[in-house]
UniProtKB/TrEMBL annotation:
The lineage of its organism: Bacteria, Bacillati, Actinomycetota, Actinomycetes, Micromonosporales. It comes from Paractinoplanes rhizophilus. One of its GO terms (molecular function) is ATP binding. Pfam families: ABC_tran. Residues 5-227 form the ABC transporter domain. This is ABC transporter ATP-binding protein.
Length: 293
């Protein structure tokens, strides 16, 4: 299977402070990838390196089989602050997109603008935050990119607009086969659309893989209080919580856990992500993941 993004020992430092540390990933093409982690984990840094806006301090990165290229027509990028040209109208943005991108799909762009109810004559600086995000996404997908990078694309959207945005994204991906890497704190949203997950915590990759496989191999086990180090059996303890008499562990194990000493339950994506992030959250320095339900 071809890869959309491959990194090897990718590292980015600002002075002595690491933003990404020794990040090794192989993200297969054709997936919708959720990039999750606490504030400051390195998600934007990774996306900016992949789209060629930032150069790494060390390590290697390959994007669609080559070096990252800033402004590549093959890569659509919507940055966290959904930059638009405030003095340009919506129609100007489409004209600019058409001018800069050889594979520009003008019919797709116009149809989206129409469906979203954006006035082509409206200056982008007068749009709401959510409308700006929709315009930025429209420009990114009308490029017909092979890889779409979205940095918290739904953060500014109301719940209905968020749902419509994700629905539109899924329809576009199903029709185009574009690979997508999307960062978000809203894991319930990611659960609806992503089939591949990357969790970054404090500049490092904590876990990565296909969502289905991750959910099948992570379990919550509850039983009499125990020392997680004694669990054994090839089971990796991701997170442990104890009362005086009881332990609740999130463990990774490819073999089924068939032990009468424990109650074993499956976990959802949000619980899985929180288990990997909990060390950071318990440190009290990071915003606790927003729970949407
Ligand atoms: N231009 C910069 N100069 C110095 N430090 C930076 C710069 N950009 C990012 N950092 C630092 O790099 C680390 C990673 O930041 P990054 O923006 O990649 O995190 P993030 O996971 O996207 O966070 P968030 O969820 O808050 O958007 C943070 O510690 C941040 O302070």
């Amino acid at each position: 299977m071809t890869s959309a993004v491959v990194t090897e020992g990718l590292t980015k430092r600002y002075g002595r402070r690491p933003a990404l540390s020794d990040c090794t990933l192989d993200i297969p093409a054709g997936h919708v990838v959720g990039l999750v982690g606490p504030n400051g984990a390195g998600k934007s840094t990774l996306l900016q390196i992949v789209c060629g806006l930032l150069r790494p301090t060390a390590g290697r990165v390959t994007v669609l089989g080559g070096d990252p290229v800033s402004g590549s027509p093959r890569v659509g990028f919507v940055a966290q602050d959904t930059p638009v040209y405030a003095g340009f109208t919506v129609a100007d943005h489409l004209r600019l997109g058409a001018h800069l991108n050889p594979a520009w799909d003008d019919a797709l762009a116009r149809e989206r603008v129409d469906r979203l109810g954006l006035d082509p004559a409206q200056k982008a600086g007068k749009l709401s935050g959510g409308q700006r995000a929709q315009l930025a996404l429209t420009v990114a997908i009308a490029k017909r990119p092979d890889l779409l990078l979205l940095d918290e694309p739904v953060a500014a959207l109301d719940p209905l607009a968020r749902r419509e945005f994700l629905q539109g994204l899924m329809e576009y991906v199903a029709e185009s086969g574009t690979s997508v890497v999307m960062s978000s704190h809203l894991v319930a949203d990611l659960e609806r659309v992503c089939d591949y997950l990357v969790v970054l915590v404090r500049s490092r990759v904590r876990v990565t893989g296909e969502v289905e496989e991750l959910l099948a191999t992570h379990h919550r086990i509850t039983g009499a209080r125990l020392d997680p180090a004694t669990l054994g059996g090839g089971r990796q303890v991701v997170h442990a919580r104890h009362t005086d008499v009881q332990s609740t562990l999130v463990v990774r194990s490819s073999a089924p856990i068939d032990d009468p000493a424990f109650t074993v339950d499956g976990i959802d994506l949000e619980d899985l992500v929180l288990a990997y992030m909990s060390e950071a959250a318990e440190g009290g320095r990071d915003r606790v993941l927003e729970k949407q339900r």
